[in-house]
From TrEMBL:
SUPFAM superfamilies, A to Z: ABC transporter transmembrane region (SSF90123), P-loop containing nucleoside triphosphate hydrolases (SSF52540)
Keywords, ordered alphabetically: ATP-binding, Membrane, Nucleotide-binding, Transmembrane, Transmembrane helix
InterPro entries attached to this UniProt entry: AAA+_ATPase, ABC1_TM_dom, ABC1_TM_sf, ABC_transporter-like_ATP-bd, ABC_transporter-like_CS, P-loop_NTPase, Type_1_exporter
Membrane topology: Multi-pass membrane protein
Location (main, coarse): membrane
Domain of life: Bacteria
Subcellular location: Cell membrane
Domain ABC transmembrane type-1: 58-340
Official protein name in the record: ABC transporter ATP-binding protein
Entry-linked Pfam families: ABC_membrane (PF00664), ABC_tran (PF00005)
Domain ABC transporter: 374-608
Organism from which the protein derives: Paenibacillus tritici
Lineage, opening ranks: Bacteria, Bacillati, Bacillota, Bacilli, Bacillales
């Protein structure tokens, strides 16, 4: 019956939400269901982290043992007190038993508290390490990993999924262990007191097992689904917040809200059903517990009348019967939390298992100084095994030369730069820097010799000074200002309130596009790289700022090998070599004059841009 109830809700049929899949294709896509994973493997990996805190864990386990032992002692002491009283010893030993009982309960509270505190410590240290490892790993992953995923979805693994593991380790792990111990101990004592009554208590066990199995089989996938939905929602939130301008510009607010509602509904439904169904467990256990209590009381009463057991034993038994179902109940409850943590851990390990950028070859050298001679020989490249994006590219750049890359959109200009900075490696051919294969140079030292000034220069939250200093962290304030002057940024910075100490909010909002570029140029000048990559701005910047940017760029390029992705042909006439790309092929190369004489795509592009300017 439940199946019929759940199925319609697992993939809710909402009346809205078809349109936005088209507009926001990437946002709307559902990921295929994750393959069933090996749980014991995941638990084993969590254990691997926990084992780092072995000493404290042993202490916790000892406390759990002690606490379980103390819990077992309680009912036994009660039964002794009752039997001693009824047996006529009345008034002498029962008081002592009750006093010991009170001490046992008090001690048990103290032990449980200590066990909790130490386990929380172990859990917090463990997730701290996991979180740090995950973050560090993310920063070592190749660009291709980020091409495939939404940022918010990745963030969800760092926050929600880790949090799930954390809360499970904090409480559930210990609870599960203590429940198993209490269960085993209780059954042992029960068998010792009365095998017959134990058997009677056990009548309800198969029913409990069947009930739990039935429920957890249904809730497990729902918890997994909820984690996945949560990741998807985070991805959607991140994407829509960072795309605010476009959303507003295209008046897509309503569609976005509808898209959010759809994802939110999925989370609500999977969460609702997971909780609602698992909430049935305590009720079921309670009912069966009462049933077993009634059996023990009824049959136990008959046995007592016949003198086969004492009243004390029946009282102890009733208590043990309750204790026996409690850990089962706890286990069932914790099982759901554990499932949710396993689902989270699987998502964390999935990222940790992603291969980092290929390691630098053993013999890779660290570059100290670079002249800047670059040579591409027969280079081809394809993204993730697809068709070739670049085919058989060969050219040379001498130290200090300015190389311009031109060609229609999608020609492969950005991809070529990606190869030069080793975000990707070529499928065929070779790239050398100062005669040395790029693959024999450590990535870090290669990239430290390059600076990028991109169309949309990223600025971090912090002061203008900090943002320029990002180019070289040990630069003095004077050096920062010197770089800003060379970049033509000094004047506008001084006009701002607080000048160099002006705080920039996220991604530099609060200053203009052109000003952002000037700061990026200052940052690159400070880095003093041997090679430069400039992605010329396509957006129209006012003429005065543009002249300033051009002057700043001239200062920056002097004496450095520069690769300029040019969108407006006017600015690259002075280039030493222009590479004309189309469909991933290098069609032409030469200076502006040489290419004009040759005719072909370049002269067509120049003619096209002149006509556009005149129009
Ligand atoms: N991460 C990627 N995965 C798969 N294909 C990609 C990826 N990035 C780019 N491409 C494809 O590679 C080709 C070249 O793209 P590239 O960004 O290098 O072109 P471009 O010349 O820089 O274009 P534009 O002038 O528009 O920036 C395009 O067809 C593009 O669709």
């Amino acid at each position: 019956m439940f199946k019929a109830l759940i199925e319609p809700f697992r993939y809710p049929k909402l009346e809205v939400g078809h349109g936005e899949a088209k507009v926001f294709g990437a946002m709307g896509s559902r990921k295929p269901k994750a393959k069933a994973k090996n749980w014991s493997g995941t638990l084993g990996r969590i254990w691997h982290y926990l084992a780092e805190r072995r000493a404290k864990l042993v202490l916790v386990l000892f406390m759990v043992l002690l606490s379980s032992g103390l819990s077992l002692l309680g009912p036994y002491l009660i039964s002794r007190a009752v039997d001693d009283y009824l047996g006529g010893a009345g008034g002498r030993t029962w008081g002592i038993f009750l006093l010991i009982l009170a001490l046992v309960y008090l001690l048990n509270s103290l032990v449980s508290w200590l066990q909790n505190v130490w386990m929380i410590e172990v859990a917090q240290e463990t997730v701290y390490r996991m979180r740090t490892e995950l973050f560090a790993h993310l920063h070592r992953l190749p660009i291709s990993f980020f091409n495939r995923r939404q940022q918010g979805e990745i963030m969800s693994r760092l926050t929600n999924d880790i949090e799930n593991i954390s809360s499970t380790l904090n409480s559930s792990a210990i609870q599960i262990f203590s429940s198993i111990l209490t269960l085993v101990g209780t059954v042992g004592v029960m068998l010792w007191l009365s095998p017959l009554l134990t058997l009677l208590t056990f009548i309800v066990v198969p029913l409990m097992m069947l009930g739990m199995r039935w429920i957890t089989r249904r809730t497990g996938p729902l918890f997994k689904e909820r984690q996945r939905n949560m990741g998807e929602l985070n991805g959607f939130i991140e994407e829509t917040l960072s795309g605010q301008r476009i959303i507003k510009a295209f008046s897509q607010e309503e569609r976005v809200i509808t898209g959010f509602r759809e994802r939110n509904t999925r989370i609500m439904l999977s969460g609702y059903w997971a909780q609602a169904i698992s909430g049935f467990i305590p009720k079921l256990m309670n009912g069966l517990n009462n049933l077993s209590f009634a059996i023990v009381a009824g049959v136990g009463g008959l046995l007592a009348i016949r003198g086969l057991v004492t009243v004390g034993i029946i009282i102890a038994f009733a208590e043990y019967a309750r204790q026996f179902t409690r850990p089962l109940n706890d286990l069932a409850n914790q099982w759901n939390t554990l499932l949710s943590a396993i689902a989270g851990a699987e998502r964390v390990f999935e990222v940790l298992d992603e291969e980092t950028e290929a390691r630098d070859e053993g013999a890779a050298v660290k570059l100290q100084h670079v002249e800047g001679a670059v040579k591409f020989s027969g280079v081809s490249f394809s993204y993730e095994g697809g068709a070739d994006t670049l085919q058989d590219i060969s050219f040379e750049a001498k130290p200090g030369e300015m190389i311009a890359l031109v060609g229609p959109t999608g020609a492969g200009k950005t991809t070529l730069i990606g190869l030069l900075s080793r975000f990707y490696d070529p499928s065929r051919g070779s790239i050398t820097l100062d005669g040395r294969e790029l693959s024999t140079i450590t990535r870090e030292s290669l990239r430290s010799q390059m600076a990028f000034v991109l169309q949309d220069s990223f600025l971090f939250k912090g002061t203008i000074r900090d943002n320029i200093r990002y180019g070289r962290l040990d630069a003095t304030d004077e050096e920062v200002e010197e770089a800003a002057k060379l970049a033509n940024a000094h004047a506008f910075i001084m006009r701002l309130q607080d000048g160099y100490d002006r705080m920039l909010s996220v991604d530099g909002s609060g200053i203009s596009q052109g000003q952002k570029q000037l700061l990026a140029i200052a940052r690159a000048i400070l880095a003093n790289p041997s090679m430069l990559v400039l992605d010329e701005a396509t957006s129209s910047i006012d003429t005065v700022t543009e002249i300033k940017i051009q002057e700043g760029l001239q200062a920056l390029m002097r004496g450095r090998t520069s690769f300029v992705i040019a969108h407006r042909l006017g600015t690259i006439r002075a280039a030493d070599r222009i590479l004309v790309l189309e469909g991933g092929r290098l069609l032409q190369q030469g200076s502006h004059e040489e290419l004009l004489q040759q005719g072909g795509l370049y002269s067509e592009l120049v003619r096209g841009s002149k006509e556009a300017a005149e129009a």
